[in-house]
Amino acid sequence: MEFTRLVFVTLFCPCTHATLLPNFVVIFADDVGFGDLGCYGHPSSLTPNLDRLAAQGLRFTDFYSTSPVCSPSRASLLTGRYQTRSGIYPGVLYPGSIGGLPLNESTIAEVLKPLGYATAAVGKWHLGFGTNGMFLPTKQGFDEYLGIPYSHDMGPCHNLTCFPPDVKCFGQCDVGTVLVPLMHNEVIKEQPVNFLDLERAYSDFATSFITTSAKKKRPFFLYYPSHHTHYPQYAGEGAAGKTSRGPFGDSLLEFDNTVGNLLATLEESGVINNTLVFFTADNGPSLMRTSRGGNAGTLRCGKGTTYEGGMREPAIAFWPGTIKPGVTRELASTLDILPTIARLAGAKSPPVELDGVDMTEILINHGKSKREAMMFYPTDPSEKLGLFALRLGKYKAHFFTRGSTLSSTTPDKECSVFAVLTAHDPPLLFDLEADPSEYYPLVPGGETDIPALLERIKKVKERFEASMLFGESQIRKGSDPQLEPCCSPQCRPKPHCCQC
Fold it and tell me: What are the helix and strand counts (H, E) for the chain?
């Protein structure tokens, strides 16, 4: 125990020598369900590199995002605050959205910059573009950015190639908006993006960033929010046709290949033992896409819902020599990544109310979580309705339930868009250890003292909601087609002329 404490103090105290500061790589998958990875039990997924992370790192069984859709979950990860505080609600941001992640919100990158960290983001931003690109990563603490500033289905795609040699993308995507652009920093490199080369470009950019930072002996933070496995799935030659799971499996394999490239580069650069790699996903699987939409495993429903399948995610922490291999059943969240990184780097936390807690005790000692509860907001949170659900310990209470278009097509009628908003008073109660599928509500007369449990949950809910100040909705600010990124801004007629 004394040795562990000594190592922790040596490695993680606030230091003046940048070379002693730990590096951070945060990998954020898109629409990957709790049951999609090989290390989480999927029988036909090929995810050897993520499986290696899980075998040699710490795998979480009870890890949550803060929203069942993309933009708000990303805002929470980067700020350590529920999306209701930053205004990233209801729903998601679009190419022409006027709003975005407010510039007065502090991101992980901005927390680390004062310590001399090099910072880079690669992949799906989805936290706003705005007037003259005012919400891009380079305005939010990142030195460099390569990626698509929103979801890659937010543009017409039926004429684009998603798989070699020339397999067109599945579906229409968003007809009527500009073709999907690939940006470097604040400049459009190509429009439309070439999906067959996209992941290779991301991998090359990310590995170059690691190599350069290591050579300069600068601590670094790499944020890799992948497009995989969001619809429409795509994959280049290195992954296309290589799995038995079809387009979804190929897309997932291509993502895993990039994870492997990052690990190899960390090893080759000699910094892998000084780097925390953290993997998780933004929300549950898009079950409306049937077999192309992912899998929530034993969990109920998926994307768009506040059932477990919508917000409970695979998560892995990997740090050779520091994090011992194992499995933790402690409660944790994407909210906790910022305060944990701040603690490990010795950085100052933002001077605002954070909803995240430090996970260091879980990571280093496989200890207990500081997180008391997890709150569940729907895609359209409101002060009037408040929380849809709350998890306290192993128990989860649903105050409201509702299905979603994004989880339709499943046999479970509670997941469907036709499962309308239903209030529950008293709330539906589930023991998530005995019943992670949320099929069997607890009833009075069992082993659990339900009245006492409900009273505890009520107090936690009241205390949390009293502390919650809803920020101005950035999404309700609306959209302006003129804000959509176009490589030829003066061309006409838009959006069809935006090609380069």
Answer: 11, 17
Q: Is the dihedral of CA 196, 201, 202, 207 positive or negative?
A: positive
Q: Determine whether 157 is an active site residue.
A: no
**Which residue of the set 126, 152, 228, 398 is catalytic?**
126
CA distances from 381 to 93, 420, 448 (A): 15, 15, 30
Active site annotation includes 162: no
Segments of 19-169 assigned E as strands: 23-29, 58-64, 118-124, 144-148, 161-163, 167-168
Structure tokens at 152: 């890659």
Q: Which of 39, 42, 70, 227 is catalytic?
A: 70
Placement of tokens 């069809």 in the chain: 496
Q: Write the Ramachandran bin of 421: left for phi over 0, alpha for psi from -120 to 50, otherwise beta.
A: beta
Instruction: For residue 9, give both structure tokens.
Output: 């103090």
- pLDDT of residue 209 exceeding 90: yes
d(CA 219, CA 115): 9
Peptide bond into 165 cis (omega under 30): yes
Q: What pTM, to 2 d.p., does this model score?
A: 0.95
| DSSP string covering 105-136 | SPPHHHHHGGGT-EEEEEEE--S---GGGTTS
3-state secondary structure of 200: helix
Q: Model confidence over 351-388: pLDDT tens digits?
A: 999 999 999 999 999 999 999 999 999 999 999 999 99
CA distance 222 to 126: 17
256 membership: H or E segment, kind and range:
helix 246-268
